[in-house]
Amino acid sequence: MMTIEEILAGESKNVEFKENLPEKSIKYMKSVVAFANGTGGKIIFGIADKTREVVGFDNEDVFKKMDAIANAVSDSCEPAIIPDITLQTVEGKTVIVVEVSEGRQRPYYIKALGRDGGVYVRVAGTTRQADEYMVKELLFEGSNRYYDQALCTGLNITAEDIDALCKAMKEQAVKNAHNEEQKASIKDVGRQQLRSWGVLIERDGKDYPSNAFAILTGNGGLHVATQCGVFKGTTKAVFVDRREYTGPLWEQIEEAFQFVLRNIHLGATIVGIYRQDIYEIPPDAIRELIINAMVHRSYLDHGTIQVAVYDNRLEITSPGKLPMGQTMERMKEGYSKIRNEALAHAFAYMNLIEHWGSGIPRIIDKVKAAGLREPEFIGGEVDLRINIYRGQIDTNDAKNDANDAKNDANDAKNDVGSAGNGVNSNENGINGSEALLNKEQKQLEKLLQIIEKKPSATQAYYAEEMGVSKRTVSRMFASLQKNGRLVQNGTTKKAKWTIIR
Fold first, then answer.
1. Residue 28's pLDDT is what?
2. Whole-angstrom distance, CA of residue 55 vs CA of residue 67
3. Do 211 and 148 meet the contact criterion of CB atoms below 8 Å apart?
4. Residues 6 or more apart from 459 whose CB is under 8 A from it?
5. How far apart are the first and last CA of the chain?
6. How far is CA 81 from CA 68, 259, 324, in A?
7. Which of 353, 354, 440, 451 has its CA 20 to 30 A from that of 427?
8. Residue 395 and residue 393: Cα distance in Å, rounded?
9. Which ranges of the chain have pLDDT less than 50?
10. What is the pLDDT of residue 365?
11. Cα(86)–Cα(7) distance, rounded to whole angstroms?
12. Pairing of strands 206-209, 226-232
């Protein structure tokens, strides 16, 4: 049961409040469907959305309302969703809690709207219609299949192409081996192996390529690329260098890795009598992050992996929501949910990944051991962004121990306006205005993601999606246009926005 504090803490990503039971059930049914397509959630009837005032229901008609909700959900959703509907007393008043679990038979949709128009998902605490890519993603999840193991239509391969892939993978396995013993144990990879992984699909004695074959080799019309950039400051307003890498995945990993190393600082430390070069961010952590993005991203989503070096951080963004059953918390604890099974097998053979799920905890440990802030994980509903902040926590004042500085850094991030958290102090190396800038930047990036999905919507729509006022959105539009990130096409009344990356 939820506590009063939890209920009144506000509409979190997975909780929605409704003052009354609406006459038209579609008003809340979209959220029921979205919760089933996501990680589950609760709708609480009897609490005002804006004010959090507990209104409650009369005890006489509360059971009638519960039945009405159960019937409406049963009649409106496909496949069937069975919510847990309970009564709870809050501040002496009775409210109805409708709890929807994460569903397995995805995609769930509103029957009357059909599968083409009735699939809804949760993004940033709001319910919205799923786009075509998201519907496909849910379909694969619901049927327990992997997109990378599906047949790649339109790609014809020869025996030479298959042999070339086997040879290249063996070379990678040898190159990435940690020691001679591991090197000696590497076996040749053959067609049977590729079939068992799902890289090849055998039909009537002939081998056909799966999407994994196309992704691994960089062929087959799936535009799989990695975009790398260096930016001045902490936003994407001014870029210093940009590169886009295509081709086999292992080449993209190496190119992106070398790009980051070229653009971060290389310091030195004395170990005994020897001078040792040390990068400001542990190279192992950088490489693992890039590999992690390649193997876990959604290839149904036509976006690209983005590797960006800012003055204050390294940011790696991979397209696609977290797979079904995965959460940020579980990921950090080492729980692995494989989205691309064929690629995962291929990466394991090439010694690019070692143990399932150990990657993220290992990256966190390496970054912290280097005296840096714990990596930041953002998103998970449309894409996943991981930030590693540059500059050791306690560099500016030897008297500050790492923990103090870390706490100050977090305070500054959480509450820029409060006094006494060391925001303006140079001792802990964090600046209040920069933290504010970061917050604004996150808002602008969030707005750009929404515009990308619906480039012709109104500012009122964007404001509602963002959960801010129309005035705030107008200001954000002005700022993005001024910085050259956003260009208006069409007429003033019917604008179409183009994002400049």
1. 95
2. 20
3. yes
4. 470, 473, 474, 477
5. 45
6. 15, 48, 17
7. 440
8. 6
9. 395-434
10. 94
11. 14
12. unpaired
